[in-house]
């Protein structure tokens, strides 16, 4: 498998073997993070540019830590302090950055397809850190990694994903990865946010949270993305929480060893109750923890690190 100069634009492009290869590489990276000195020279002399046009805490910080753990030179670029505010286009910005010879650009952008656009024009590798309502592939991979650690498998698991389905790029990446890995996925939300048409992806869509959670091995809650909603998709947040929020009574319908996931940020009291967000069956912080080794694996592989491994 040739990873050098490959792009990570969407999990729809990944084979099962490639997904497993990334997760196996992440296991090796996790061992580095257990050492007293959590740093290796694998990417010394390489430059990783975090190019973020949307607010981000977990993803941006995770990629920055991942690059630094591998000894890469990491540069953070924020659109608010750039020439973008003066009218410069994404392509012109990227071409100017490309002239500085980075090895990898990690891009988050509000326009769907923007990483694909840059991949056609730039000579460095591109990692999609979230593009509009399209995909968020590194989140999908770290979700898989967290599931594997707690369940030791993904094949055959019943996974309920509940919330703002239609606006979620996390869902789209997870549908590609979970489907390929053999999980049984149920999507749930208000009819306006979880259209039945999504059943074409080979998943079940229900508007009843109890039906979605019943006998689930994993319950993944999603944030209501008010910033992406152009109209009213439900009467009120109180009504949404009453019908689609996860509480103890609803979660009791899942399997006894079921766990709770959330890609963050959490709106406490809306999609999930406080007590469940902090309970011992919540692996939300495990997901955050998984982000560093998974993103280390992606950076390492894209920079040609697998050549040394072989």
Described by the principal axes of the CA atoms, the overall outline is globular
The mean pLDDT is: 91
Q: H/E order of the elements?
A: HEHEHEHEHEHEEHEHHEHHH
- How helix-rich are the residues, as a percent range? 25-40%
SSE arrangement:
Layout lengths: L15 H17 L14 E6 L5 H12 L3 E6 L11 H9 L5 E6 L4 H8 L3 E7 L5 H15 L6 E5 L6 H12 L3 E5 L15 E3 L2 H5 L4 E4 L15 H8 L3 H4 L7 E3 L12 H4 L6 H19 L3 H4 L1
Parallel strand pairs: 1-2, 1-3, 3-4, 5-6, 5-8, 6-7, 8-9
Helix pairs in contact: 1-5, 1-11, 2-11, 5-6, 5-11
Summarize the model shown.
The chain is of the alpha/beta class and 310 residues long. It has 12 helices and 9 strands.
Can you describe what's shown?
Helix 2 packs across helix 11 and helix 5 packs across helix 6. The radius of gyration is 19 Å and the shape is globular. It contains 12 helices and 9 strands. The longest helix is centred in the last third of the chain and has 19 residues. By secondary structure, it is of the alpha/beta class.
């Amino acid at each position: 498998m040739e990873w050098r100069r490959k792009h990570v634009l969407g999990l729809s492009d990944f084979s099962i073997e490639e997904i497993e290869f990334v997760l196996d590489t992440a296991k090796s990276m996790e061992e580095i993070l257990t050492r007293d000195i959590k740093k290796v020279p694998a990417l010394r002399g390489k430059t990783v540019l975090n190019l973020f046009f949307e607010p981000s805490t977990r993803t941006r910080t995770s990629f920055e830590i991942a690059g630094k753990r591998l000894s890469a030179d990491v540069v953070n670029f924020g659109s608010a302090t750039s020439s973008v505010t003066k009218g410069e286009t994404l392509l012109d910005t990227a071409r100017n950055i490309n002239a500085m010879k980075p090895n990898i650009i990690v891009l988050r952008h509000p326009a769907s397809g923007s990483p694909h656009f840059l991949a056609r024009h730039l000579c460095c590798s591109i990692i999609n850190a979230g593009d509009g309502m399209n995909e968020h592939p590194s989140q999908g991979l770290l979700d898989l990694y967290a599931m594997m650690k707690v369940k030791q498998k993904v094949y055959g698991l019943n996974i309920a994903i509940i919330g703002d389905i239609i606006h979620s790029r996390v869902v789209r990446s997870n549908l590609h990865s979970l489907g390929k890995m053999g999980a049984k996925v149920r999507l749930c939300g208000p009819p306006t946010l979880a259209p039945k048409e999504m059943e074409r992806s080979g998943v079940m869509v229900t508007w009843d949270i109890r039906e979605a959670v019943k006998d689930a091995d994993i319950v993944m809650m999603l944030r209501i993305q008010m910033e992406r909603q152009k109209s009213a998709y439900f009467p009120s947040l109180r009504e949404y929480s009453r019908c689609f929020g996860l509480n103890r009574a609803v979660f009791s319908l899942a399997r006894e060893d079921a766990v709770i996931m959330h890609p963050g940020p959490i709106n406490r009291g809306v999609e999930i109750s406080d007590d469940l967000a902090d309970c011992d069956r919540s692996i939300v912080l495990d997901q955050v923890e998984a982000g560093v080794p998974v993103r280390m694996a992606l950076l390492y592989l894209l920079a040609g690190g697998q050549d040394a491994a072989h």
